[in-house]
Specification:
The chain is α/β, with parallel strands linked by helices and about 450 residues long. About 40% of the residues lie in helices and about 10% in strands. It has 2 domains: about 5-275, Glycoside hydrolase 38, N terminal domain (7-stranded beta/alpha barrel, Alpha-Beta Barrel); about 285-390. The chain is built from 13 helices and 12 strands. It has a 5-stranded mixed sheet. Strands 8-1-9 form a 3-stranded parallel sheet. The radius of gyration is 26 Å and the shape is elongated.
Length: about 450
């Protein structure tokens, strides 16, 4: 029987879904300022009813701290008090994220650990039906122990297993994983039950919700309820509702909590009784990626271009390099935002030719065009710099550069301008031996 409820307020980060991206960015910065206000307003509430907040993505923290109206000191203090929790994922990811991209996207949270003097122990990926099976391994390598999912029930499959469970990667690393109830609700379940409405509605809906959960075989005495909507801030009235419920009821007790608190409770009390599943959890929403095949191909090709840039940078390290780390980081940032899960505005299906639909896609696609353009320029500059370091490079010559760490055989294609191939003899040279190609 459920005797303890952990209510976790956050907002679902949906860049460009409810409004154009720039407007969503401003709104998320304002939300974190409101979080600090709500923390101050409820400082004198009982501990269980004090307002707490989980940053669903690390991007929201970066977005807030870059605002000149932000209050970094108070923000850090509230994180240390466990009134605010920062989670590890930079954005809500799709399977467009390569392993390299996943690692780099997690690096910002690790930077926050150092700059704020905190420890990040949980991650959230909301709205997505699945993700890379490498994720448990990557998280555990960073000492992140907990993962929350909220699978959207629309055209999606919720794995029919007991929650929470340990999700194990192929190498054996595992994270304790939760998925919100998604047959009726998902991350907005707290609203549907009534936490964001008047107390009478909560009193009516919560008992039937718990009865429904228990009737489906839920075996533990604690349960996590998310209260979130797309780019929407929960009202501070949830604190009054929790305080009133706990005043009237001996069980179940409700605690407003950050994401990791539920996991810590479950792991401590039920260690050894939580099942482990070593299986893939594929994303079945990849038709969104396929709907923009050209832009998706740019994103895929960028994975190779960025590796080539890094390889060239290593070779040219003793030389003068004509770009900065900031430029590379900006390419990755643009790629992160394009590859994240928001694929169209909330009116894309009903109003595909509306201003909002068109403008949202224009902004989203611009991220990958800018990233691809910057990478192409940097790669060309580096190759030109490499050319100047090769002795006796003159005349009509083409450099073929293998960025891999091993020898390989492949077809080389290049354009010869203003002439035809029959006017040339092609000489292949590895620096020692030359062979004429016909």
């Amino acid at each position: 029987m459920i005797h303890k409820i952990f209510l976790v307020p956050h907002t679902h980060v949906d860049l460009g879904y409810t409004d154009l991206q720039a407007n969503v960015y401003m709104k998320h910065s304002e939300m974190l300022q409101m979080v600090l206000d709500y923390c101050r307003q409820t400082d004198n509430y009982p501990q269980d009813a004090k307002f707490k907040w989980t940053c669903e993505t690390a991007w929201t923290v970066k977005n807030y701290l870059s605002d000149n109206k932000s209050d970094p000191e108070e923000f850090r203090r509230r994180v240390c008090e466990k009134r605010i929790e920062i989670t590890a994922m930079y954005l809500n990811i799709t399977e467009l994220y390569s392993t390299e991209e996943l690692i780099r996207s997690l690096s910002y949270a690790m930077q926050l650990e150092k700059t704020l003097g905190i420890k990040i122990v949980s991650a959230i990926n909301t709205d997505i039906p699945g993700m890379s099976w490498a994720l448990p391994q990557l998280l555990r390598n960073l000492k992140i122990k907990y993962l929350t999912m909220s699978v959207d029930p629309v055209r999606a499959f919720r794995p029919g297993v007991l929650y929470p469970f340990y999700w194990q990667s192929p190498n054996g690393d595992k994270v304790l994983t939760w998925n919100t109830e998604s047959k009726k609700y998902w991350y907005n379940e707290g609203y549907e039950i009534g936490f964001g409405k008047d107390y009478a509605f909560l009193e009516e809906k919560l008992p039937s919700f718990l009865e429904y959960i228990e009737s489906n075989g839920y075996p533990f005495d604690a349960y996590m309820i998310k209260i979130a909507r797309d780019n929407v801030f929960p009202p501070v009235s949830i604190c009054d509702n929790v305080r009133e419920w706990n005043r009237r009821h001996n069980t179940p007790k409700i605690e407003i909590a950050v994401n990791s608190t539920f996991f810590e409770y479950i792991e401590k009390k039920y260690r050894g009784k939580i099942p482990t599943y070593q299986c893939s959890w594929p994303d079945c929403w990849t038709d969104g990626n396929a709907s923009a095949a050209y832009e998706t191909s740019l994103s895929r090709n960028l994975n190779h271009s960025l590796k080539n840039i890094e390889a060239l940078s290593s070779i040219l390290a003793p030389c003068e390099i004509n770009y900065s780390n900031e430029e590379i980081n900006k390419i990755w940032e643009n790629k992160f935002i394009f590859d994240e899960h928001t694929w169209g505005a909330n009116c894309s299906v009903t109003s595909p030719f509306s201003f909002k639909t068109k403008a949202q896609w224009a902004q989203k696609s611009l991220y990958i065009y800018q990233a691809a353009d910057s990478a192409e320029k940097i790669l060309a500059d580096n190759l030109n710099l490499l050319k100047t370091k090769i002795q006796n490079f003159s005349g009509s010559k083409v450099i073929v550069f293998n960025p891999l760490s091993f020898k390989t055989s492949n077809i080389v294609t290049f354009n010869i301008h203003n002439t035809s191939a029959k006017d040339y003899n092609f000489v292949l040279s590895d620096g020692n031996v030359e062979r004429v190609l016909r």
